[in-house]
Amino acid sequence: MIKKINSAFAPIFLLLFIVLVTACNNEPETPSVLQLVSSTGQNYVSENRNVSGGTPVITGVFAQSPTSNVSLTKFLVTFNHDSLDKQPPVIYLDSTLAPDTKNFAMQVAYTPRNLANKEIWKFIITDSNNNTYQRVISIKTTTTVNKADSRYYTYKDVLLSRVKNPRTFLDSLGCIGFSSATGTSFPAYAAKQPEVNKQIDLLFNNTGTQKPSLSLMGSDSLALTALTPNDFDAIDNAGEIRNSYPATLGANKFENLKDGQVLAYKTTLNKIGLLRINKVYRTLDSLAIDVKVEK
Length: 295
Hints:
The chain has a 5-stranded mixed sheet. Strands 9-18-17-16-14 form a 5-stranded antiparallel sheet. 35% of the residues are buried. The protein is elongated and about 65 Å long. The protein has helices spanning 10-23, 188-191, 194-197, 229-234, 238-243, and strands spanning 34-37, 49-52, 57-64, 72-80, 90-101, 103-110, 117-127, 132-142, 152-161, 177-179, 184-186, 202-204, 214-216, 223-224, 253-254, 262-266, 272-281, 286-294. The protein is built from 5 helices and 18 strands. It has 2 domains: 7-142, Immunoglobulin-like, CATH 2.60.40; 152-294, no CATH class. The chain is mainly beta and 295 residues long. A hairpin with a 4-residue loop joins strand 17 and strand 18 (286-294). It starts with 9 loop residues before the first helix and ends with a strand.
């Protein structure tokens, strides 16, 4: 049975859970090696669930070795946008654990697509005998903005951050990369994975709170436009997005971003995107943006 905990105490709970379960290891039955821990916070997911597209979520993971002479060696997280789970999965996190690890706990932050569909997330632990233990979550995403016949995507209130979510603090971990094709944000540990990295268009790569900045992955097409925030709101078709790209040369990086600025860029799929800076959280090292991008 999944235990519910208050979100404010989730990190503490994971540590206490390790102590309590370890103390019970002298019971004759073998304890469950891998468990997904839930919380009362609305962004915590530990079982199949429907969420609004683009909603950041967290899955609490706890694992313990099956016996005293076996250790945990590897933690792997994958996702698959194929709702039937028949296509090769994408590696989201691949971590080799420290030698002689007996217990492992982590809060995994991820963002389901900002498109209506279903995706499969797998959390896998491997032990020193090369046995694997797996938990699977199916997430159905719903959205009222992006339709199958739309010629462009709209992503509202995307948060890029190197710290915890400034809106919820304890309920989210920082996401620094953004994929325009799926409306998905990625934390730093996921952005390092090759299959994830090649999906990312925008990277929040702040080196300090006084100069919040965005850069592109392998492109020099980021450019400031003359559009106002109201102009951005008025754009309602792909042609207007494409026509808004300025004639001036772009750059790989744009620093010292300010509220209300509208930037244009080219995605890894060579589509034109526009982004509006909604809010720069200088003291929290975070950035909130709206995005409109060709499909």
